[in-house]
Design goal:
By secondary structure, the protein is α/β, with parallel strands linked by helices. It contains twelve helices and eight strands. An eight-stranded parallel β-barrel has the order 1-2-3-4-5-6-7-8, surrounded by seven helices.
Length: about 290
């Protein structure tokens, strides 16, 4: 019902490129033309039948081929539950393996998104398994989880590519830090540790995914103090959020990748964006009829 409501659809377009592959590709092309890299995400999650999981995999393979055909500077991001993790780890891993093979052929990469803490162990397990077979796979760690410091220590030792974000799922306080100040402090701590010289020498590469100006400033200060080359990390932000900052960081010489979601399954994604920052709702209501 909500997905057919005009105002909801109009507001969601702030964060979602559209519902079709062509709309996703057009948004990616626009970002590339402005000097920004892209990660495309065909929205979807919580798949509970094998046919739908395989269909989602087929759609991602098609997306990868379209990225290559259109010579876009883009990779893809995908949620494990969209590929059948709730059915079996093997099904999810097999579907990811097919996508990674295509991505390798197309000269790009696949990022395995992190969902709620229910899936953290399985997601990291699958990532580790596939990283033994492919060098074009990365995953996500969330700074609001108490376990993340240990996870990132192990991933750094393995020379992994990781996207660090704060996290947007509702979690109990024994699993995740309930206070923003603690989430932020952990984010800075994890960022600094992962980008330390010894970890980068092992091949560890960090994608600093944040819109928080304090986290951005902390990263900029750290990389300047430690003379970290701009090609050894990147910033990531969501489509439609702090666009001006995205361009400013690019103009300063930093790598910037924009996470662009598209597809008909936009409602859960849209609601998480509002939950992350309730002020987004007022901003969208003010702009929905003028955009």
């Amino acid at each position: 019902m909500v997905t057919h409501f005009f105002v909801a659809r109009r507001m969601a377009r702030r964060f979602v490129a559209g519902e079709t592959l062509d709309e996703g590709l057009a948004a990616a092309r626009e970002m590339n033309e402005k000097g920004l890299m892209v990660s495309l995400d065909l929205l979807g999650e919580s798949v509970h039948d094998e046919v739908t999981a395989i269909s989602a995999t087929d759609a991602y393979v098609n997306l990868l081929q379209a990225i290559h055909k259109n010579t876009l500077d883009a990779n893809i991001s995908v949620k494990p539950t969209q590929l059948g993790l709730d059915i079996s780890e093997q099904l999810c891993a097999d579907n990811l393996r097919r996508m990674l093979t295509t991505a390798q052929e197309c000269g790009t990469s696949v990022n395995i998104d992190m969902e709620s803490s229910k899936y953290t162990d399985a997601t990291i397990k699958i990532f580790r398994q596939l990283s033994q077979e492919f060098d074009n796979v990365s995953t996500v760690i969330q700074s609001y989880l108490r376990r993340s410091e240990a996870d990132m220590t192990h991933l750094a030792d393995e020379g992994s590519t990781v996207r660090l974000c704060k996290g947007a799922y509702k979690e109990p306080p024994d699993v995740a830090f309930p206070e923003k100040v603690d989430v932020d402090a952990n984010y800075v701590k994890l960022m600094q540790a992962y980008m330390a010289d010894d970890n980068r020498q092992k091949g560890a590469y960090l994608k600093v995914a944040t819109h928080d100006p304090n986290m951005i400033d902390a990263t900029l200060q750290y990389v300047k103090e430690h003379n970290i080359p701009v090609d050894q990390f990147e910033f990531q932000m969501l489509y439609g959020i702090r666009t001006k900052t995205q361009f400013e960081l690019h103009e300063q010489g930093y790598q910037m990748r924009v996470y662009i979601p598209y597809g008909t399954e936009w409602y859960p994604y849209f609601m998480r964006r509002l939950a992350e920052r309730p002020a987004n709702l007022w901003f969208l209501l003010k702009n929905v009829f003028t955009r």
